[in-house]
Amino acid sequence: MARVNSKVAILTTIGLITAAGTINFASLMPRPTGDRISIEGHDFVGVLAGGITGTSYSYVIPSATGVILVDSGQDPSGESIKAEVAGRKVHAILLTHGHFDHIAALPEFPEAQVYAGPGEGPLVKGEAPPKAPGGAIATKLLAGAPYTPPKFQEFRDGETLTIDGETFLALHISGHTGGGAAYIWEGIAFTGDNVIGRGNEFSRVPSIFYSDYDQVPVSMKKVFENHDWENIADGHSRITEAYSARAQLQAFVGDDGH
Ligand SMILES: [Zn+2]
Question: Most C-beta atoms within 10 A of its C-beta, which of 35, 67, 176, 216?
Answer without folding.
Answer: 176
